[in-house]
Design brief:
- The protein is an alpha+beta fold.
- It folds into 4 domains: about 210 residues; about 90 residues, no CATH class; about 80 residues, Sandwich (Immunoglobulin-like), CATH 2.60.40; about 100 residues, no CATH class.
- It is built from 10 helices and 25 strands.
- The strands form 8 sheets. Strands 19, 21, 22, 23, 24 and 25 form a 6-stranded mixed β-sheet that branches. Strands 7-6-8-9 form a 4-stranded antiparallel β-sheet, with no helix packed on it.
- Strand 2 and strand 3 form a beta hairpin.
- The longest helix has about 40 residues.
- It is elongated.
Length: about 525
C-alpha cells in the first residue's frame, strides 16, 4: 500500500525522528575497543601489503632476467607487465595520497625526534617517508566530508574501474577463472538494498565511507591497496607463465615462499626463502606427512589438523618423485606453526587505573605470543599470576600516574624481549554511600523504615569484590519544640531506642542519619556523608 493511502500519524513521525537521533548518537559514540581492533587490522594489512609487494618485485626481477636472456621471446609479455606495474604504482600512490590528506585534515601531526611515537599510538607511514601520528582515530566528520562531499570516493571508484579494465584487457579470453578473480577483487558495484534496513539504496561510496570513523576508513583504504596488489600479483604471474609455459620439462610452475617464522615482532628481521616450484601434472609424486602417505592432487597434498590448545607445533614430511630416468628422489621438509587462543582486549580510553589495597585483575595480549611466554613487571607494586591472567597489587597512591609503570616482556627463542610499557594511575577505593531500604535519602514510608534492620555502606558503580561495613551512626530527629534529639548506634543496626523513635514519627517528619563510619575489607575506616529522609 502506498504512503498516500496510509499517511504517517504524528506518533509514527515522532518515533521515526527518535530513531534518527538515536542512530546519530550511536554513530558518534564509537567504542574504544572497536577503534583498537581497526588499528590492529590496519597494521596487519600494511604488513601483508609489504609482503605482496616483495613477491611482486621478485616476479618483475625475473622478467628483467628473462628479457636479458631472450628479448624476442619475452618482449611481448614484459611490455604488458610494465603496463601493469605502471598502473598499479599510480593507483597505490593515489590511495596513499588520499590517506595522507585525510589524516592531515583530521589533525594528524608529523612524528619527529622531539615528539616520537608512543608504543600504543596509531600512525600512518606515507609514501614520501613521513610518519603521521593519528590523534583522532574516531573522527567521523572529516572522512565523510572528504570522501563523500568532496567526491574523493567517486574519483577513487573511477580509478579502480579504469585499473580493472586495463588488467582485464591483458588476459586471454580463455582464462575465465583469472578474469573472475580480478573482477571480484576489484568490484565497485553498488550493494543491493537491504529490506531489513528499510530498503534504502546505498552506493559503493556511501557504503564504505559515509559516517565511518577515520581509523575504519584508513583500514578500508589499506584493504583496497591489498586488493590492487593481489590483482597485480595474479596478473604478472599469469603473464610470466605465458613465457615459461614451453621452456621447462615440467608443465606447471608456481612461486613458493617459506618464511623463517609465521610470527615476527616489530624490529626483528623477516627472512624467507623464495623459489620457483615446477610441477609435472602427468606424474603425481608420493607425499608422506608425519610418516603417513596422504592423497595428492595436481602435485600437491593438503595437511589439516584440528587445533585444541595454544602453543608452537611442528610437522614434517617427505616427497618422493620419480625422475625421467626412473630414479626415486627424496625431498624432506619441516614446518612450524603457532596456535593462539581467540581473544579480544577491551579497555576504556584514558582509564588506566589500579586501586590500592585490591587485587587488580590484569589481562595482556602479546600479539599471538602464548601467554605462558609473557612476563609482567611493574614499579610501585607487585605482580602475580592467577591462571592465564595477572594480579596487580599497587603499594602507594599515584593519582598522576607518574610512578607506576607496567612492562610486558616475552620469551622468544630463549631471549627476553620487551614488548611495551604503559603508565597507570593508582587511586584509593572510592567512599561508599549510606543506604537505608536501598535509598540514599529522599522520602520513605514509616512502615518501610520500621522493617529495616540498619544502615548499609554501598559502593555504587564499583565492580570489584570489595565491601564496607558500617560501624557506627547517629539518628537525629527534630522534636515539636524545635529541639534535635540524638540517638547513637555503635554498629550497623538500628537500636531498640531508635526503632521506638521511628514509631512515633508523623508524616512529613524529618530524620537525619549522620556521623556514619564504615570499615572496608582492607581495614581502613571511612567517614560517610550523612543522609536524610522525609516520612510519607
Amino acid at each position: 500500500m502506498g504512503a498516500k493511502n496510509c499517511p504517517e500519524t504524528p506518533r509514527q513521525k515522532m518515533i521515526n525522528m527518535m530513531y534518527i537521533v538515536l542512530t546519530a548518537m550511536l554513530a558518534l559514540n564509537v567504542a574504544a575497543e572497536v577503534l583498537e581492533a581497526f588499528k590492529v587490522v590496519d597494521i596487519s594489512l600494511l604488513q601483508t601489503l609489504e609482503t605482496v609487494d616483495m613477491k611482486n618485485a621478485q616476479v618483475y626481477a625475473r622478467f628483467e632476467q628473462a628479457f636479458a636472456e631472450n628479448e624476442t621471446r619475452v618482449k611481448e609479455w614484459k611490455e604488458k607487465a610494465d603496463i601493469v606495474k605502471e598502473k598499479t604504482d599510480s593507483l597505490i600512490l593515489f590511495i596513499g595520497a588520499i590517506k595522507k590528506e585525510m589524516a592531515i585534515k583530521s589533525g594528524a601531526t608529523q612524528v619527529t625526534e622531539a615528539q616520537p611515537l608512543a608504543s600504543n599510538d596509531f600512525f600512518l607511514a606515507t609514501a614520501d617517508g613521513d610518519t603521521l601520528k593519528i590523534s583522532k582515530a574516531d573522527d567521523l566528520n572529516v572522512p565523510s566530508e572528504f570522501m563523500i562531499t568532496q567526491k574523493k570516493a567517486t574519483e577513487l571508484k573511477e580509478r579502480v574501474e579504469e585499473y580493472r579494465a586495463t588488467l582485464i584487457s591483458l588476459i586471454d579470453d580463455s582464462d575465465e577463472e583469472l578474469r573472475n578473480t580480478i573482477m571480484s577483487a576489484l568490484h565497485t558495484s553498488d550493494p543491493k538494498a537491504n529490506i531489513k534496513e528499510g530498503g534504502e539504496s546505498k552506493s559503493w561510496e556511501t557504503e564504505r565511507f559515509l559516517d565511518k570513523p577515520l581509523v575504519a576508513v584508513l583500514t578500508l583504504l589499506s584493504k583496497i591497496q591489498i586488493d590492487v596488489k593481489n590483482s597485480e600479483a595474479n596478473l604478472i604471474n599469469y603473464l610470466y607463465s605465458q613465457i615459461d609455459a614451453g621452456s621447462f620439462l615440467f608443465n606447471k610452475l608456481g612461486a613458493r615462499v617459506i618464511p623463517n617464522s609465521s610470527m615476527i615482532l616489530q624490529g626483528d628481521e623477516y627472512v624467507a626463502e623464495v623459489f620457483l616450484a615446477a610441477e609435472d601434472t602427468t606424474q603425481q609424486p608420493e607425499i608422506l606427512i608425519n610418516g603417513r602417505s596422504v592423497p595428492v592432487h595436481d602435485g600437491k597434498a593438503t595437511y589439516r589438523i584440528k587445533t585444541s590448545e595454544p602453543g608452537v607445533f611442528s610437522w614434517s614430511g617427505l616427497i618422493k618423485y620419480k625422475t625421467p630416468a626412473g630414479i626415486i628422489k627424496n625431498y624432506s621438509f619441516k614446518q612450524e606453526y603457532q596456535v593462539t587462543q581467540p581473544s579480544v582486549t577491551m579497555s576504556a580510553t584514558r582509564m588506566n587505573v589500579f586501586y590500592r589495597g585490591l587485587n587488580n585483575p590484569f589481562d595482556v595480549s602479546g600479539g599471538g605470543i602464548p601467554r605462558e611466554n609473557l612476563e609482567v613487571t611493574m614499579t610501585n607494586g607487585t605482580v602475580s599470576r592467577s591462571g592465564d591472567a595477572f594480579i596487580i597489587k599497587p603499594n602507594e597512591l599515584d593519582e598522576p600516574g607518574r610512578r607506576t609503570t607496567v612492562s610486558v616482556h616475552a620469551n622468544i627463542g630463549g631471549e627476553r624481549r620487551l614488548l611495551g610499557t604503559s603508565n597507570w594511575r593508582v587511586k584509593r577505593v572510592p567512599d561508599p554511600v549510606a543506604h537505608v531500604a536501598g535509598q540514599a535519602g529522599g522520602t520513605i514510608r514509616k512502615e518501610r523504615l520500621l522493617v529495616e534492620d540498619g544502615v548499609l555502606a554501598v559502593l555504587e558503580d564499583f565492580d570489584f569484590d570489595f565491601k564496607y561495613t558500617v560501624t557506627q551512626f547517629r539518628v537525629e530527629i527534630s522534636s515539636a519544640g524545635g529541639y534535635v534529639n540524638f540517638f547513637e548506634s555503635n554498629s550497623n543496626r538500628f537500636t531498640p531506642e531508635q526503632k521506638d523513635q521511628f514509631r512515633r514519627l508523623n508524616p512529613n517528619s524529618l530524620i537525619y542519619i549522620a556521623n556514619i563510619k564504615a570499615v572496608g575489607d582492607d581495614g581502613t575506616t571511612r567517614d560517610i556523608a550523612p543522609i536524610s529522609f522525609k516520612i510519607q
